[in-house]
Each structure stands twice: as C-alpha cells, then as structure tokens.
C-alpha cells in the first residue's frame, strides 16, 4: 500500500516520497495492515542517512485517504478488539507527528476521517483546488467520533468553534475554505501538487517555512475559547444544539463534545489517551453498528453486477450525452448534477417560461458552486447545460429522462414522440415517483430500453437513485443505468415495477397513517413529535408540507387504486387542494410559514406553526381528552412503514432486506440509527414485533395486521439478516 521513493544521495535537499496506493481498491483506507506498513516505512526512513524531509501523496486519481476501513468496526466481536486497533493507530500517528523530519501531506481528492487525522499529524498540508478535493471528519454520521486524534488535534490547530462545526456536522470542507480556517497551509493546482510539496519539504527542512500550530486569534476567540467562562458557554450551547437536533438518539456527538472540552485542559498525550476507550465503547454500540452497516451496504450496492439470461456479467456503457424532457425543478436538478459530473446535458420544455426558469435554476446552482469551487472549475460544468423548445439533437442522446407532470396520458405521448426520433440504443427513462413504468411505456415498440430512474429532491443532496425495471427491461439497459448512477455519485437500488415502486409506496402508507391519526383526534404537533422521538428526521405532516400536498395527493390516490383494501385517501386531501393549500411551496399547508423578512421578538425569524384552521378540514374529528403518548404514535407510524416494506419484499418489489433498508433510510428517512426497517425488526425480534402488532391491531384496526413473511419468521425463530447480501466499505 505504501511505496517509498528516495532521492539519490547527491540530491539537495534529499527527500523521500511515500505514495499511498491500496492495491485492488478504488480508494485508500486505513486498515491494520496499513498501520503496519506505515511503521515499516518510517523504520526505513529512520535508518536512511541524509534525508531532509518526507512527502506523503496518493497514487489514486481522486482520493488521498477516504477513512478507516469500517470492516474493523463492523466485524469486531468485542470492545477490546476495537480499542486495540484504535490504540495501535494512535501509536503510529504519534510516531508520524513526532518525526524529526518535516512531513508534507500532498492532498488531492477525498481526505476524510482517518485520512485527515493522518494529515493533521504532518508538519505541512497542501491541497489541490480540484472539485474532487474535500476534507472532513464524517465519523459522527457513523455513530462514532474522530478517534484517531481528531477531537484532540483539530481544536488545537483551527480552534474550538470551527472544530465543533466540522466534527458535529461531518460536513466536507473545500480547499479554499480549508486554507482560510487553517486546516491546510497551501492550495495549488493538481498539476503542481508534487512539485509544491517537494518545495515545501525543502523549505521546512531549511527553516525557511514556519508551520502554523495554533488557530488565528480574534476577539470572539478570546471571549469564547481563551477563558473558562466563555468556553463553558460555548460547550453548553453545543450540547443544547445537539440535544435539540438529535433528541438524544445519537450518543456520538455528545461524547465528542465531552472529549474536546476535557482534552483542552490536559496535556496533548493525556488528551489523546482518552480517545481509544471512548471510541471502542461507541463502536460496539447499536447506533454505530447500525449506521456502519448502512454505510457498508450502500457501498456494496454501488458495486452490484448485472447478468444476462445466460449468467454472463453485462458491462454498462458510460453516459456522455443526456436529454431531459421537462424543465421543472426536478428536471433542472437532474441536469445540473449530471453536467457537474461531466455529462453533456440538454433540457427541453414546450414553453419559453418554464425553460427559462430551468436554465435560471441551473445558473443559480453553478453560481453557488463557483463560490466554493472557484469559477475555473465550474465554467466547464455550466457550459455543458443547454436548453431547447424542440427535440433537436435528441437523436444523439445516450439517455433521455422524462420529468413532465404526473399525468399518464402525457407521459405516454412523450415516450411515443421520443421513440419516433431516437435509435433503439437510446435508453428512455422516466422520473415518475408512482405511476407504473409498464403503463407509461405501454405504446412503445422497444420496451427493452424503458426504465424508471426515480430521483429524490433535492437531487444534489439526496444520495439514493431508485432504478425501476419492468419484465421487458434489458440487462444492458439496467447495467448502463447503474453505471450512470455511479457517474453521478448516487447509491442505486434496483426495484421491480409496481404502484409506487418501493420508496413511494412505503412512504404513502406512512403519510396516510399520520393523517388518520389526526383524524382520530391527535394533534399535528403530537404526530410530528412522536415520529421525531423515534428517530425520523422530520415528522410526517411536516414532510407532507415539504413534498407538496398536491404531489402527495396524486401519489396516495395511485396507491389507493392499487391497494383499496389497505389504504384510504381521506377527503381532507381534496379539500386542502380546493383551498389551494399545497404546502410549503406556496406558504399554505398544515403549517403557517413566516414570510420572507418577517421578524418576531428581538428580531428573530418566527418558527413555522400549525395553522389551527386545518383541523376544520377533518370532518367529525374530536380532539382527544387525553393527548396520548407521542412516542407510541411514532412507534405506530414506524411499524406501518416497516410492515409495508416487508410486503414489498414478499412481492419481490425489492430483491433483499439490504435494498429495503438502504431505500428506506436514504429515500424517505426511516430512522437511520435503527439501520432500516428490516434491521430494526431483527433487533426487536420478529416474534416481539408480531405480538406488539397484535396489540395495536386490536386497538386501532387492520392497518396493523402483520405481513405473512413476518409471521413466518416469528414462527420459525428466524430473521431477515440471513437474506442479506454481502456488505463492504470504508469510512
């Protein structure tokens, strides 16, 4: 993994270049073998005379080190195994940090987690200005904290406020922002990285370059970080913010805050010694185990293969030209994400106004990106997007995605028009969220190239791509769409055609169950709060407002037609639409949203609040004398979603519990710390879940009837984990 290149003895200065390149893998990760290799390389360097400095650089085209190999945490049988690995990592990084020679980290591509912790131990850090280069500590997203020295070294380098923000949010830092905050010392072009690193190593060796070891001072830092009272205020506020956002369901952020606060009062070595036992404790806990499992399974999905009828692996073709039909918000969003990844993209709409809005959306997106990436890198991406009122040039597209309004007849007409002008090799996809793909393509001649590509909004942030296949979809079409998912950085799940597919179907049952709870007399606040207390990122009523009540109505009615005995769309929905209550998009939904610039007490922007008038739309609703337990409401909603996910597995809509878990968490926010509906049911025990659903069924009706597969697992004492495919990944 580590290749050592030494300058000849006569070179001045004589430098060593260590190239990091994990064989057979697309990304570099830190595993036990890598720690041993680092020790071996430094032992060699210690015995090499005349060296002036060391450069660490990656041999990968798009990553430095992407993190630690999470298999270490996921497969550890005992807490002590994780702690042993963590302590070994600390020993190796301490050796690097205490090197007598200056060490320069030459960073291009992802430098995350353990990769950034390694870089923090170097004397000097140089990053390229490439869009591929990001720095971050995402461990809290996995239920952990930066346990390789991150919570100790980072605050000492860039300051407490900046460190808390990086560690608690897990967000990526772009090179220019990293330079400004002191995380890196230089930003250079990709082409000049090695030369710049060599030059820096020589200047450091000659004492002509002084490494910065402490954050820049300012008035705010003096008030909040450099005195005990201010520091206490800062950490208390951080705890309150974490508690408000996580409701105590994720322990890692609070552990990280405690370690940072305590570590700043200790000598460096004592502060570092706190990390391994605390890290190991979290790593074997249920939250980290579930989140790490999601990470590994999502990585496995990015590597899935497609085989033809003869069992041969089919290779997907790269997408170089993409045509969007429909310039609405989703169409424009898909266009910018594709263009940013190097795909020539054209948007077609039938009228100048929507097309103009689509192109304006693209421009605004790239303007925002240019502020973080720089105009030089964004210019090419912006130039890849074009617009048209005609289908000119669509005959040369590799892939065309339809994103017109959810009207079956309209979509059928679009595909008939497209098929008449494109060659049989062009893939025709629809971004419908609920209409059956087979019905959309019923009039097509070449049904083998028809597929569903269901994106989630906002496309630039949502990681999932639900790929929907019909019985006629060819292996080549599927393989190419999986390759397209990889090109644009999405995690794909492949599902079979059917009303609502997987994600929309499960979400529809979840949302209608929430409306039924309001009809039964529960308050909107209680329903939303109950879901959040169980771990849903937002409550179902809030989500309905965010998605759009009009969109939710169309989806729910599609599901009600398919499953009339199990889902009912209340008249409330039509009354909302007649009153032009569409949700957040027009400021009128279940909630009242403060206007732009509206300010309340002390100039603070008011929070959204439930509109009391909406209860009038629920005919016959009688408020409960006893409000009920919000957590039970959350439990009921979660079981409704889990039961529908199980039915999708029974029917073959999803291929495995793995796909179902990833689709549920990444697609509509099933509580991440539970690991997805199938892993959640396994943790509770199928038998216990069947018993609980029997109680709820007796009290609340047939919505809680357990699926046949769940009953079978409870009867046989089995669970869903045995049906999962292999997992794998790193972080």
Walkthrough of the structure:
There is one protein chain. This protein has about 725 residues and is α/β, with parallel strands linked by helices. The strands form five sheets. The protein has an eight-stranded mixed beta sheet with strand order 14-13-12-15-16-17-18-19, with helices on both faces. A six-stranded mixed beta sheet has the order 1-2-3-5-7-9, sandwiched between helices. It is globular, with a radius of gyration of 27 Å. The mean pLDDT is about 90. It holds the Pfam family ECH_1. In the central section; belongs to the 3-hydroxyacyl-CoA dehydrogenase family. Pathway: Lipid metabolism; fatty acid beta-oxidation.
Topology:
Layout: E1 2-6, E2 15-20, H1 32-46, E3 53-58, E4 63-65, H2 71-74, H3 79-97, E5 103-107, E6 110-112, H4 114-120, E7 124-128, E8 134-136, H5 150-158, H6 160-169, H7 175-181, E9 186-188, H8 193-205, H9 219-224, H10 228-246, H11 252-263, H12 268-273, H13 275-283, H14 286-301, E10 306-307, E11 313-314, E12 321-325, H15 329-340, E13 344-348, H16 352-373, H17 375-383, E14 385-388, E15 399-402, H18 408-419, E16 427-430, H19 437-440, E17 450-454, E18 464-469, H20 475-487, E19 491-496, H21 503-519, H22 524-534, H23 540-547, H24 549-562, H25 571-578, E20 591-592, E21 609-610, H26 630-650, H27 657-668, H28 677-684, H29 686-700, H30 708-716
Parallel strand pairs: 2-3, 3-5, 4-6, 5-7, 6-8, 7-9, 12-13, 12-15, 13-14, 15-16, 16-17, 18-19
Antiparallel strand pairs: 1-2, 10-11, 17-18, 20-21
Helix pairs in contact: 1-3, 3-13, 4-5, 5-6, 6-11, 10-11, 14-27, 15-16, 16-17, 21-23, 21-24, 21-26, 21-27, 22-26, 28-29, 29-30
